[in-house]
What we know:
The chain is of the alpha/beta class and 414 residues long. Helix content is 29%, strand content 21%. The strands form four sheets. The chain has a seven-stranded mixed beta sheet with strand order 8-7-6-9-10-13-12, sandwiched between helices. Strands 16-17-15-14-18-19 form a six-stranded mixed beta sheet. A four-stranded antiparallel beta sheet has the order 2-3-4-11, covered by helices on one side. Strand 18, helix 11 (386-394) and strand 19 form a beta-alpha-beta unit. Helix 2 packs across helix 3. The longest helix is centred in the last third of the chain and has 24 residues, at 291-314. It is globular and about 65 Å long. It starts with 5 loop residues before the first strand and ends with a helix.
Amino acid sequence: xxxxxxxxxxxxxxxxxxxxxxxxxxxxxxxxxxxxxxxxxxxxxxxxxxxxxxxxxxxxxxxxxxxxxxxxxxxxxxxxxxxxxxxxxxxxxxxxxxxxxxxxxxxxxxxxxxxxxxxxxxxxxxxxxxxxxxxxxxxxxxxxxxxxxxxxxxxxxxxxxxxxxxxxxxxxxxxxxxxxxxxxxxxxxxxxxxxxxxxxxxxxxxxxxxxxxxxxxxxxxxxxxxxxxxxxxxxxxxxxxxxxxxxxxxxxxxxxxxxxxxxxxxxxxxxxxxxxxxxxxxxxxxxxxxxxxxxxxxxxxxxxxxxxxxxxxxxxxxxxxxxxxxxxxxxxxxxxxxxxxxxxxxxxxxxxxxxxxxxxxxxxxxxxxxxxxxxxxxxxxxxxxxxxxxxxxxxxxxxxxxxxxxxxxxxxxx
Length: 414
């Protein structure tokens, strides 16, 4: 991968204001999927991540864009093999049909950033016609093998011309943890509004919830790949600019969602669903600019708690390993000073053999490695799958008390 270009911004991504306040600085952070071979150690991309809040519209965001064209060509991260994720995807598809299209078949779903097609497969099995749009050639090939038609590329306003005739108007446009990657969310929303069915079209989006990020100190979700971080209030603000009305935040109940999930549904102002418009429930403190100064302090405290935990475990000659080589694991370790004290990281589906985490340079193995180099304690970065992970590793003799949730450690609960 070529060294990507970085473009600095001066305007808010949501409202165009130039009045932005920085509240967090994470130095020399890598990409979340840029795993390196032994020969490439030290050459991986790294750059500072600064997080700002707009003083006018209160949208949290980065103020730099990294050219990810080459990076996403080989992107491979997917949770499609997780039983928990599969259950969630099926629930989302079924609930959407029950709530909005109970008597209809063949409604058209276009998913932007469709990964390996797992979510679209759930829609297809529920009676929808589906089409994916995905920049990774590897994931496109996986989707096609599942019977999910997929166009390879980054979705832009020009992409509409590439859609097949039957998808020039879509009933549903779906994004799962893709919307917060968009460098120009307003342009995307306007493009989406132009192809949505004006009478009953739905934009269905799952993103990371800024409220939860802050409450849980999840600094690992601040990434180069992400551009904006939203609350219910800021979701409503940006949708309104594009002529969309937010009508649902509760399609999937909280208990059935993934670890950090804000799901919203919006519809054109002309839609028969527009009278379902709802009021955001964002806490008042998110409108107080001084609140964000405390956010930065709290996140730095969480990193300190994590480093203390690692020192405490490893000082007793115990072997500590990490579970989860996704974005949470990569970025959590990259911000630490003592990540090297972990022995290694395991993942159910590592990107390849003989690879290392970017920046922290810990070796990454499949979970079977635990049989050959047993761990004493395991910190679970992908904490939303904790029960699934504990059950899976119990077959190797690991006990529940050996597992530590990243969220608990960041909060000092250990």
